Amino acid sequence: MNKGFLFSILFSFFFIDINANQQGREYFLVDSVNYNELPLHDKAILDSLLPLFHKAKHDTIKLNLLGAIVEQCMDDNLWPKYNLLMFNIAQNALADPSTLKKEEFIALKLKLADALANIGFFNLNNGDLNKALGYFQKSLYAQKGMSYNYGMASALLNLGYIYKSKGEIVKALDYYGKALKVFEKINHLSGIANALNNIGLIYKNQGEIDKALENYNKSLAIWKEVNNNRQLAATLTNIGYIYYAKKNEEKALEYYFQALEIDESNGDKRGIASSLNSIGLVYYNKNELPDALAFFNKSLVINKEIGNKKGIAESLNSLGLISWKVNEIEKAHTFGSQALEIAKESGYPKNIADASELLSKVYKAQKNWKEAFNMYELQIKMRDSIFNEETQKAAIKQQMNYENEKQKVLKEAEYQNKIAIEKEAKKRQKVLNFATGAGLIIMLIFAGFIYTRFRYSQKQKGIIEQQKQQVELAYQQLSEKNKDITDSINYAKRIQNAILKEEDQVSEHLPEHFIFFKPKDIVSGDFYWSLEKQFPSEAGLGFCNYWYFAAGDCTGHGVPGAFMSMLGVAFLNEITGVERFISPSEILDHLRTRIIKELNQAGKQGDSNDGMDISIACLNLSNFELQWSGSNNPLYIISQNNYNSEFVVKSEIFDIQLSEIKPNKQPIGFHPSPIPFTNHCLQLQKDTSIYLLTDGFADQFGGLKGKKFKYSQLKELLLANNLQSMAQQKEILNNVFKQWKGNLEQVDDVCLMGVRI
């Protein structure tokens, strides 16, 4: 190499080193950056990206550069500072969205979501699961309404990891599955590899180590393809554990040392500490205690250096295991107690379980039976929280064993039955030969009797044939009548469909809207209704457009319910035909009066009990003020506000909640103590969703145990899918209803209307 060229390289590095440190915060943008102590990799990142940042004019470019620094820097004391800067810039830029173009707004929201996710990752690394959970949820919410992207999938993946760490396996699998789907849709290889790796961890915890290994190997191949050494090392560690569980200790060490080598080359202290502890556990199981002790101590030093509480608890517990094995009970007690305290503080069930298992042994050796039992109970509790599907898994395995045994028994029974049949056939043949002669004689004796019976049966056959013809004629007449009735009902359906507006007609009134309408029979007792009216504004300047819409549930279903529903629609059109604004509560008061009058209801014995339950709303299309009133059917509102409702269900993922506005508990029909219907006035905000519904969806029987779907599950379903478009929500409701119902009969008509402001 040319010496002059080499000298110029060395000089330029020296100049950057001195000059950068002198400039301090002005150059580095953040406080307390000791450039000289940074890894070479991180120095190179800062040297290449910070000059570009200082030249950048636009926030989006600056945020992209900060994002690259955060993503690529390895030092756990460095990247969080740049991430906080990225968060502040994005938040300040979003302070006034009206000044931003749509593309700028989306780009800034994505960077804000990235920063929130990184804060969650920082808290996760420090063992604070609850804080991490909150930031990952905020990251996901920041991307509400956006198309599928990497940040959204990452937030889902991280939420899955949090729930897995908290022992909530079902939620973890749900989020991992959602993340994998998003990564596949956007064809993000690294994301797919991450999701596969995490699903492999679930299989590992379930004891399905072969399935875990299959997922790890797929993940490993992708990490090699995309050349991501950090994740490659983590996956090698996971594969090492599988061989450790298979008792193949040499193979486990091979993978662990590969991971350690990569971690050391990356300067990944967290990965180094994890690999050291894993190697120590293998030596511990091989009873090579001095080597195990050395690796555990190295792991503990690094974990303390970086403040990794989860890792500290693991290392302390590992040291406690060695003390226990060499009968140093007091030291084992000290290590175990420290591990348990930190594990409880960080909230990792597995660490708590491991520490309590060690302490249970220690207290037992000390004859402290009470504490030994307490630790044993804690261990079992934590194990159950991690393996809360273990019982189900065991039941499945037991069922498989049962099926196998059943097949064996059936085969054995078939074999024995075959032998018995052969023996019986031989025996019967002997009896048949013996009885042939006697049988001929008996047949001759009864020949006359048989002939007589034959004559009698022929006569009976003629009678039966005549009866058969009569039955066929009656069946034909019944079929014709049934066809006439069915044709009539189908015609009634055409009439009902003509009265009910088609959904695309209703949709003309609002940008986003769906009607999920599913009759139990050909015609329906449930109905929906929609009408647009124009009235002078309160200020007397111009006109305001109002949109009335309702979901009703009439007594019964099928033909009787359909008659009532058509009557209801006709009365609603008549009541709202006046040339003035009429509130939803007034409409219900008038509707009740008309129904009672037309059906001659006086509360006497034998009177008709027919009527309807209904939820009706009126929306001012100018200012989005909503007026609503309900007879037995509620109103659901999903938004960030609770609208002064006492009945609120909060989303576990997004910063939204479902508020339930309760109806009057009286029908549209006769009631012994009627009161005027209540009119609710609500000022709706943007991105608010409202739902009018009947009871058909919640009352449907189905699922594995054939139980009702229930309103609580319906609320959770609406909350979980609130980000989806109204059309997608309708499709989801339809699919869930079909899956829940299965092969069971539909119980009632279903009507559910959704509108997004």
Describe the protein.
The chain has 757 residues and is α+β, with helices and mostly antiparallel strands. Among the domains are: 316-384, Serine Threonine Protein Phosphatase 5, Tetratricopeptide repeat, CATH 1.25.40; 503-756, Phosphatase 2c, domain 1, CATH 3.60.40. Helix content is 65%, strand content 10%. The strands form three sheets. Strands 1-13-10-6-8-7 form a six-stranded antiparallel β-sheet, covered by helices on one side. Strands 2-3-4-5-9 form a five-stranded antiparallel β-sheet. Strands 11-12 form a two-stranded antiparallel sheet. The chain is globular, with a radius of gyration of 37 Å.
Gap between N and C termini, in Å?
A: 69 Å
Biggest beta-sheet profile: 6 strands, antiparallel
CATH architectural group of one domain: 4-Layer Sandwich
- Count of helical segments? 25
Strand content: 5-15%
Shape: globular
CATH superfamily of one domain: PPM-type phosphatase domain
CATH topology of one domain: Phosphatase 2c, domain 1
Q: How do the strands line up in the largest sheet?
A: 1-13-10-6-8-7
- Poorly predicted runs of 5 or more residues: 1-22, 389-410
What percent of residues adopt helix (DSSP H or I)? Answer: 55-70%
